[in-house]
Amino acid sequence: MSTNMIGIEKDTAQELAVKLNVLLANYQIYYQNLRGFHWNVTGPSFFELHAKFEELYTGANEAIDEIAERILTLGQTPLHTFNDYIEVAQIKVAKNISDGKETVKATIENLSQVIEIEREILNLANEADDEGTATLMSDYIKEQEKTVWMLNAYVK
Asked: Residue ranges per domain, the chain?
């Protein structure tokens, strides 16, 4: 068995990178959806949602960079075109949504899809003894589950 520069079996690292690229693509669409919600949200909750979406897209932007760097650390290449993101992502582009509750519901759906992908990667990373990827996914899941809980409380 040959390993990559961080000691992970090359085939496993490639498999992890493929999954991380799926996550990266979904994060990119999630990020852009959040930007659109931030810009276009209307209604009585404008000020609080405008600020919340900025907080969320700032965090998503940081995660995008971390995921791409993790793919590179595994010895692979991150996706980097919008065509690739749209082709690979399960999250759909949110267009013309401005109602506060609808933007929050769409964000919950987006995050739920992201968490599902992260759990897959977490399991694969644990099997591969890839602590770096596992820790990254675990940290994301913990934070996003809390965010989903809070957003759900908001729309009820």
From this structure: 10-155
> Looking at the whole model, is its pTM more than 0.85?
yes
Question: How far is residue 136's CA from residue 83's CA, in Å, rounded to a whole number?
Answer: 26
**Three-state secondary structure of 36-72:** HHHHHCECCCHHHHHHHHHHHHHHHHHHHHHHHHHHH
Burial of 153 (0-12, 13-18, 19+ CB in 10 A): exposed
99 beta partners: 42
Helix, strand, coil % over all residues of the chain, rounded to 5 = 75, 5, 20
Across the chain, which has 156 residues, the per-10-residue mean pLDDT values are: 92 98 98 98 97 98 98 98 97 97 98 98 97 98 98 96
Instruction: Write down the CATH number for the domain with range 10-155.
Output: 1.20.1260.10
